[in-house]
Write a structure and sequence with these properties.
The complex is a heterodimer of chains A (120) and B (474).
Chain A lengths: L21 H24 L6 H12 L3 H8 L6 H31 L9
Helix pairs in contact in A: 2-4, 3-4
Chain B lengths: L2 H21 L7 H25 L5 H18 L7 H29 L8 H29 L14 H21 L6 H20 L7 H23 L2 H25 L3 H6 L2 H8 L12 H10 L2 E6 L1 H5 L3 H13 L3 E6 L9 H8 L7 E3 H4 L8 E5 L8 H4 L18 E6 L19 E5 L2 H18 L1
Parallel strand pairs in B: 1-2, 1-4, 2-3, 4-5, 5-6
Helix pairs in contact in B: 1-2, 1-9, 4-5, 4-8, 5-6, 5-7, 5-8, 6-7, 8-9, 12-18, 14-18
The chains are: A mainly alpha (120), B alpha/beta (474).
């Protein structure tokens, strides 16, 4: 009845999306989206206002999760060349965000100190 | 265990680590752990995807490696920019994120279209594809333009660009894009479908530009947050298209983060989303600024230094002017000298001070000012009546009492830092012109207010020198 979700992989360029999974799968995806949004809202509300700039650069890096989709598109075996090229550019863009996002977040966070030098 | 199960397990752990990563951002003490957990999550996500790709016979690995390497080579220097450039780096990064999502969506559509894959192009998938490219490409151009405005690229207008019928044009274009989207959903394999798809791409690109040109610098914190949210939502849409729950979760986390930040920014300006995006803030002020010329009282740095030395509580209100002048290190010197004399110094941080959420905090943290002395607006306002001196460094609208009293002011209703309740106010201002929003600031004309005209960095440096000099001189 309930199938494991089927992440599309390049070996099956034409997966049974829609056909084999039907509505249940889409509903599953929407449920995941709804729950993740609630978790996100609740977690983010607790983030200190001090850290809103690093928070944004961290979520920049996290949104570069698009790299997953870019990889799947790029690595497809029998895909036309321009599809691969689009995927590769997307990998490049996402990697830029991953590297710069995490590095600059850490660089900023290192600067936040409770006390130093001058006694409080 | 099948390869597919392994992939999903890796994704599961990755999702948990992403949530923990954001959870740990709640406190500066644990925040760096959050970065490590985010990095681990991303590595697992990439490893899992690669494992899945290999198990089903992927290819182009050298090209992929090259794309990774090139991305890292560009990403590394982007992480080394000076902290005053963080808002434009962030905007640029949203642009990259939007472009990546848009390109993957484009690739997916043309792949399915080329295969005449009717089974794949279900209503749900096509809706998600249209959403993905709409959000992705409008985030791309919108963020690029925002980055250009923030970087003050000379051929990009800094002031809001408005023209008659602007909102109408925007809505018409958006409506057209939606209509094309609906047509695609109904007939994804029609001979004209690639053209309609291309049309949606072009309209999204144009829409991104049109949405950002009427936005002024003061609204940037909100706009950057909204674009942050869009970048996340485009990843969610990609997750729907690829039926990938990791993409959906991580994108939703990013989307909700942008949403919360936008709400905080809007509240801090007493404006709605709609008003920020379509309010064309630029027009309202032109009339407001036309009033009669009132007289400023300026003062010398010497006497300002003397007054501050005698104070027991000094509240510093930083604004974008401090960032522009890169004055944070001089502010730190002043902070040290005052502390050494037993003066309590606090910083009053307005949520929209600067050009992105938390901008002032990062600059002051860079100057190694302990974050315990960076106080949010709501908390500091109770202390301001006891403050002997409020020192305004390059802030304007966030301390304008007109927001409290003057119903005709464009910023009426915006919560402000009550700098006017301090016993004495010193305001450092670059020139006698009204601020970015073009609104006269009543605070500057109060009896207890003295202006210190000049570049924030040199005026604060001068103040510090006077304080240090007194020490050795007497």
């Amino acid at each position: 009845m309930m199938q494991m979700e089927h992440t599309e992989t390049p070996g099956h360029p034409a997966p049974a999306a829609g056909g084999g999974h039907g509505q249940l799968d889409y509903m599953g995806a929407l449920f995941v989206f709804m729950l993740a949004t609630f978790i996100g809202v609740m977690v983010i509300q607790r983030v200190s206002r001090l850290l809103h700039t690093p928070l944004m650069s961290l979520t920049n890096a996290i949104s570069a999760i698009a790299v997953v989709g870019a990889l799947i598109v790029s690595a497809g075996k029998d895909y036309p060349g321009y599809i691969t090229a689009l995927g590769l550019v997307a990998i490049f863009c996402s990697t830029t965000n991953i590297v710069s996002g995490f590095l600059i977040t850490d660089r900023m966070l290192k600067m936040f100190k409770k006390r130093e030098g001058v006694a409080k | 265990m099948s390869a597919e199960t392994l992939v999903q397990l890796l994704y599961l752990v990755s999702t948990a680590l992403f949530i923990l990563s954001l959870r740990w951002m709640s406190d500066p003490e644990t925040a760096r752990k959050g970065v490590f957990s985010g990095v681990a999550a991303m590595l697992l996500a990439v490893a899992g995807t690669l494992a899945g790709v290999m198990a089903t016979g992927g290819t182009h690995y050298w090209w992929i490696l090259g794309a990774f390497a090139l991305g890292a080579a560009i990403g590394y220097p982007l992480a080394q920019v000076p902290l005053t450039a963080v808002p434009q780096r962030t905007a640029l990064s949203h642009a990259f994120g939007g472009l990546a999502a848009g390109l993957v969506g484009t690739a997916k559509f043309f792949l399915y279209y080329g295969q005449r894959n009717e089974a794949a192009l279900t209503t749900f998938i096509v809706v998600a594809l249209v959403a993905e490219i709409l959000l992705g490409f409008l985030t791309f151009t919108g963020s690029l333009l925002a980055a250009g405005k923030l970087q003050e690229v000379h051929w990009i207008p800094q002031r809001p660009v408005t023209y008659p019928g602007q909102n109408l044009t925007n809505f018409a274009l958006f409506g057209l894009a939606l209509a094309l989207g609906v047509a695609l959903v109904l007939h994804p394999l029609a001979p004209w479908a690639p053209w309609a798809f291309g049309g949606v791409i072009l309209l999204s690109l144009a829409f991104g530009v049109l949405l950002i040109i009427p936005i002024g610098g003061a609204d940037m914190p909100t706009v950057i947050s909204i674009l942050n949210s869009y970048a996340g939502l485009s990843a969610v849409a990609m997750g729907f298209v690829l039926n990938n729950k990791l993409l959906i979760t991580a994108g939703a986390l990013d989307g909700s983060s942008g949403l919360i930040l936008s709400i905080i920014m809007c509240k801090a300006m007493n404006r709605s989303f709609f008003n920020v995006l379509f309010g064309a803030f630029g027009q309202a002020q032109a009339s407001a600024a036309g009033g009669e010329q009132k007289a400023y009282k300026s003062d010398t740095v010497e006497s300002a230094a003397q007054v501050m030395e005698q104070a027991s509580l000094v509240v510093i209100v930083p604004g974008y002017g401090m960032a522009v002048a890169q004055a944070q290190h001089k502010v730190r010197e002043l902070y040290d000298l005052l502390k050494k004399r037993g003066v309590t110094v606090k910083f009053a941080i307005h949520p929209v001070a600067g050009r992105m959420p938390g901008h002032m905090n990062v600059l002051l943290a860079e100057a190694e000012i302990p974050y315990t002395d960076l106080v949010e607006m709501d908390e500091i306002n109770g202390d301001l009546p006891q403050a002997d001196v409020a020192l305004i460094i390059g802030a304007n609208d966030v301390v304008n009492p007109a927001a409290r009293a003057d119903k005709t002011s464009p910023i009426y209703g915006m919560p402000i830092i009550d700098a006017d309740k301090a016993k004495t106010v010193y305001a450092i201002k670059r020139s006698k012109n009204p601020g970015f929003a073009g609104i006269d600031n009543e605070l500057y004309f109060l009896d207890k207010t003295f202006m210190l005209f000049g570049d924030a960095k040199s005026v604060v440096g001068e103040l510090a020198r006077k304080l240090a000099g007194d020490n050795s001189g007497h």
